[in-house]
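Hello again, I could really use a second opinion on something today. For a while now I've been wondering how a particular protein folds. Please have a think about how the structure follows from the sequence. Here's the protein in full, and shout if anything looks odd to you:

***
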Amino acid sequence: MIIFFFASCGQDIQGSYSGLVEGREVTLQFKDDKQVIIDGYFPISLVGTWVEEKTFEEPLIWISFDGPEEKPFRLRFELKAEGENFRLTGIKARPLGKGTKLNSIKIQGAPVFKKSS
């Protein structure tokens, strides 16, 4: 089991978190070995990995997903811990290819992913 500790408080992020993103119910399932499965954002489930990004004032969680072979792209969800939940601070995406950069995707509000019981 992976246990992740934020600088301010310890928190086990393994498990499922759900939130409403642009009218879609999106679920993030944190698994062993920093693996994450996202359901509801793209027509099929995507598998990715998370890292703690510490270059900002507060630690963030960045989750990167690659699209399917028939539609290659990179998708990144950027999350900030709020108690046992996460606030979505940004989504970035790009087609896979040499020299392409991640572009911000405009989202309304700041959706919260709440831990499922």
